[in-house]
TrEMBL record:
GO molecular function term, any single one: zinc ion binding
Transmembrane parts of this sequence: 138-167
Any one Pfam family match given in the protein's UniProt record, by short name: Zn_ribbon_GRF
Protein's name according to its UniProt entry: GRF-type domain-containing protein
Keywords: Coiled coil, Membrane, Metal-binding, Transmembrane, Transmembrane helix, Zinc, Zinc-finger
Coiled coil segments of this chain: 77-111
Species lineage: Eukaryota, Viridiplantae, Streptophyta, Embryophyta, Tracheophyta
Keyword Coiled coil belongs to the record: yes
Domain GRF-type residue range list: 19-61
Length: 239
């Protein structure tokens, strides 16, 4: 037999045929031909220098229920093949689902990282805004404190000196501003007491004065009206 090989041998008996070499041929099993697993008679000098070509199939009568065994074997083999096909199909479906899940996880992770980055940037901006607002608040409080301190200091200097701040209720026809402020000597009030009722001392100016800041004893404020205190008090000396 061409293309056959033997990997096992069995003892011979009287019924075994003799090969061309004149010796009894052992039973061998073919694995590399078109009939794998089929047994045959072959020369004991096979694949040796003798190269005997004797060949004869060995097909004994099958045992009882041999056909049933073969049928069940074939059915089992078909079941295994079918199950293997289903397993391959299920495996492919699971692989596809795994790819989709991995893609979804990747997209979700990217979105989460972007959201976290945006949240951190927003938090940084909020902290910067809060810090800026606090700085501005501190500056405003300091400015207000300075203004109040200067006002109180100026008023204290005025009270302790020979000068008094007066607020008149004259109106400007051009700008309709109801305030005029000037600084005058106490001697003017003593000399012209009749004008005390027309003028308001600084003691009662809290709800009447507008925008009075930092009056020093020798400072004279600008007019907001066309008239002056001089016209009201018969030309007292202005400072």
């Amino acid at each position: 037999m061409q293309g056959s090989s033997s990997i096992s041998s069995s003892s011979v008996d009287a019924l075994m045929p003799r090969c061309h070499c004149g010796v009894r041929s052992p039973i061998r099993t073919a694995w590399k031909c078109d009939y794998p697993g089929r047994r045959f008679y072959g020369c004991s000098g096979y694949e040796t220098t003798r190269k005997c070509s004797f060949f004869q199939w060995y097909d004994p009568e099958p045992p009882a229920r041999y056909s049933d065994v073969i049928r069940r074997f074939l059915e089992t083999n078909e079941g295994i093949i079918s199950e293997n096909t289903e397993l391959k199909k299920t495996r492919q479906e699971l692989l596809d689902e795994l790819r989709r899940l991995q893609q979804s996880v990747h997209e979700t992770r990217a979105k989460l990282e972007a959201t976290v980055a945006a949240s951190m940037a927003m938090e940084d901006n909020m902290l910067a805004s809060v810090a800026t607002t606090r700085k501005r608040g501190v500056v405003i409080i300091v400015l207000i404190s300075v203004i109040v301190f200067v006002d109180l200091s100026a008023l204290a200097l005025c009270f302790q000196s020979n000068w008094i701040i007066f607020i008149s209720r004259m109106h400007s026809t051009k700008y309709n501003k109801p305030r005029y402020t000037s600084i005058h000597s106490k001697s003017i009030i003593l000399k012209y007491p009749e004008y005390k009722q027309r003028l308001h001392l600084v003691h009662t100016y809290s709800r009447r004065i507008y925008g009075v800041t930092a009056y020093l004893p020798h400072m004279r404020l600008n007019h907001t009206s066309g008239r002056s205190i001089k016209e009201l008090v018969n030309s007292p000396p202005q400072l």
